[in-house]
Amino acid sequence: MKTMTCKQLGGACDKEFRATSFEEIAEMSKQHGMEMFQLKDEAHLNAMNKMRGLMQKPEEMKAWFENKKKEFDDLPED
Ligand SMILES: [Zn+2]
Q1: Is the N or the C terminus of the chain less surrounded, counting Cβ atoms within 10 Å?
Q2: Cα 36 to ligand 1 centroid, rounded to whole Å
Q3: What is the Å distance from ligand 1's center to 55 Cα?
């Protein structure tokens, strides 16, 4: 298992997610983001707006994703 925080995954808080694959952790952070969206948490709404801007540019989104995946892969197992 590896650990990444909401912030590390483009979010806005220090909540930790633990998973064995990047796809899994990305999904957990997405679920958390949607919860925060429903609670209208301002910090997360801002972070999501930024991500949404990124998603408009597939090349940049891909680079972001690859970058985060590498960060995940480089983390020590815990
Ligand atoms: Zn968060």
Answers
A1: C
A2: 7
A3: 19
Give the distance (Å) from ligand 1 centre to CA of residue 59: 25
Please write the tens of the pLDDT for every residue from 31-47: 999 999 999 999 999 99
> Per the structure block, which two tokens stand in for 66?
């690859």
Q: Which helix (H) or strand (E) holds 43?
A: helix 42-55
CB 31 within 8 A of CB 44: no
Count of residues for the chain?
A: 78
Q: Using alpha carbons, select from 77, 75, 68, 78 the residue that is nearest to residue 23.
A: 68
**Tokens 């801002």 sit on residue:** 46
Phi, psi of 63 (to 5 degrees): -60, -40
Instruction: Read off the pTM.
Output: 0.90
24, two tokens: 């899994």
* 12-24 pLDDT per residue, tens: 999 999 999 999 9
